[in-house]
Amino acid sequence: MISLQQRIITRVNDCMQLAAKELAREFSPPQVQFNQRGRIAGSAWLERWELRFNPVLLADNETEFLTEIVPHEVAHLIAFACYGKVKPHGREWQHIMQSVFGLTPRTRHRLNTSKVAPTFSYQCECRSHQLTLRRHNNMQRGKQRYLCLHCNSILQKQ
Predict the structure, then answer these.
(1) 2, 9, 103, 138: which one has the fewest Cβ atoms less than 10 Å from its Cβ?
(2) Total-model pTM
(3) Of 64, 73, 92, 125, which residue is the catalytic one?
(4) Active site includes 73?
(5) pLDDT tens track for 96-132
(6) Are 48 and 103 within 8 A, CB to CB?
């Protein structure tokens, strides 16, 4: 049985070959790592010609990775190879997503990140707020206070 990581690497190579065919140009296969952390599903390191994927999110979202996230990240590399340094989700990247991969260009994934990025409940005078681990830690250490944008009161841990 082929491992999940090997299926992702195969999909990366398939996307690179499709781009090469559609754009009539050769692209070398990128280095593929599975060391992305946090809420980020994948990232493209342009100068290193490297893609990084989040193994925790991958384990729970194989289909989304194969159909959307891998082409999304490959499109960043292809845009860099064809146009140089451009806006990350600019016209060039969007064109590659649509014309090469036939996908709607979305800048963010819609995966459930609760496993990799817990949130903490805080309350103001008018509603409940969910804060990230970083903001929660800053509050607990007394480094930062956060105000509600609606009622302007200080958020308190529930």
Answers:
(1) 2
(2) 0.79
(3) 73
(4) yes
(5) 999 999 999 999 999 988 888 888 999 999 999 999 8
(6) no
